[in-house]
Task: structure prediction
Amino acid sequence: MSVRRHTVLPGFGFAMGFTLLYLSLIVLIPLSAAVLKSATASWSQFWATVTSPRVVASYRVTFGASLAGALINMVFGMLVAWVLVRYSFPGRRLVDALVDLPFALPTAVAGLALTAVYAREGWIGRHLEPLGIQAAFSPLGIVIALTFIGLPFVVRTVQPVLQNIEAELEEAAASLGASRWQTWRRVIFPTVLPAILTGFALAFGRALGEYGSVIFIAGNMPMRTEITPLLIVTKLEQYDYAGATGIAVVMLVASFVLLLSINGLQWWSRRYQDA
Amino acid sequence: MRLSTRLAGAATAVAILLASVAGGTPARDQGDVTLLNVSYDPTRELYQEVNQAFGRYWKARTGQTVTVRQSHGGSGKQARSVIDGLEADVVTLALAYDIDALHQHTKLLPATWQARLPNNSAPYTSTIVFVVKKGNPKRVRDWDDLVKPGVSVITPSPKTSGGARWNYLAAWGFALRQSKGDEARAKDFVARLYKNVPVLDSGARGSATTFTQRGIGDVLVSWENEAFLAVKELGPDKFEIVVPSATILAEPPVAVVDRVVDKRGTRAVAQAYLDYLYTEEGQDIAARHYYRPRLAKVATRYASLFPKVTLFTVDEVAGGWQKAQARHFADGGVFDEIYQPGR
Result:
């Protein structure tokens, strides 16, 4: 009710109604179908499925590798965005376009390509092997794949914000006696932080559900490099729809809670910055 | 509630509309007819040739033009698509377990489907062999060489791949016969074998890539027809096939999906399509794509291609697919026990 009073734009009812219908058709109804399907199992069956050691190990792999991938992207995605916005160099547009490639490439192709490069006889794997690092067919391989597919999210969310920071802001900081580091830390970083967090959340969420690229590079060893989406496929392969959707529901709830808290963090950082 | 009914109604209407567009004219008219053959991954080239040959055969006999569309993917995934409503007139899958599922989950065909065609409804067979690097540097000759320390074996996960279940049961059957039916020793054998597997790909083609392209592993356990293709495509100077002393008779079955053909009016042509696989022509095409033919006449023609080997069946070593699935591949089965922590 208070919403209605605050809005000055017309057409709130129509827009809101459409939004709800759209979200229901595309997101809510399919997801509730998953929940309903998992409800065909009894509570104890459900619990036994989602807490079995192998499934728990896969949560660790999936959430751990997704987090690692998203954190790497947070740092290096920011760096890439910075370079693309702040410097002009020959071929910048080309590099800019390259960033989107992980979006466009079918994930299976990405997985095959990454495996080819990072396997024992691949271009990069060949040099990692003597150092005792096994990249493909190990948890590290999963992190590599998830970093690859998550890269554009951080770059593309941070880039426009960096672009919009006015030079006057930095000049003002400098004229007030701030060092370059202080300007970055106190002026620029707080401005882009919400965008970085958004990019992080997107990359993380995308990584949680990734299947196509990971199965090629992971090696899929039970307890060690099995991701949760693979276990869902494994259950389906046994026509165990209830078990598969059970695990899916756990993923769904966990992802939702995580994304919600990241959104909360972002909201908080924005408020903190305004204050 | 009312909304959901209405939605369901709308969905049905759309589905009917799509079906009528896709299905075209029913077969009863003397016009064109289309069939959908839902199959598994390695049969793509086989059925491309079968479909063209069958088209000519059917045209000559009835004057009707038949177009057979193909769909390929993992065997289990394909069966699930059919269960979820993909209108397959015939299914040609990797194992009987996946066609059984069509009966169990949706009653698309009767439980007795496998007895309706000769030879357990498997018009062609295959078996499980080894692919090794040229010269066989690790001297792999038989299944017991695969459990030796230092031999790295590539096979997909039987949890996700139909073909891998044949691999597993071949090893199991070999060990069972060696130990005169001692299941504990067979279990130990497969456990040791899978300890030598460094990568569990999700499908047979993935494993072939790991072995041939990534250079990982000493032995690839593979369908015989896939092994022939790999050696042919990648060069006999790089890889060679080793046939073990005894292995499993892999019977990829075929079936008409009753509920679909009755609805679409395509039963006669679908049935003829499967029967065609058993004819001399059909058998010859199968043999050319490295599937072992059933027909003695064709088998003798290709005798030099397929080495003679002692074959055992799934029924002999595991009591059929339903039992094999429950005992070995279901959650908590023998295959899972291999990977229990602390073992």
In short: Residues 137 and 219 of chain A are 4 Å apart (CA to CA). Chain A touches chain B at residues 52-54, 112, 115-116, 119-122, 136-137, 215-216, 219-223, 230, 233-240, 243 (CB under 8 Å). The mean pLDDT of chain A is 89. The radius of gyration of chain A is 22 Å.
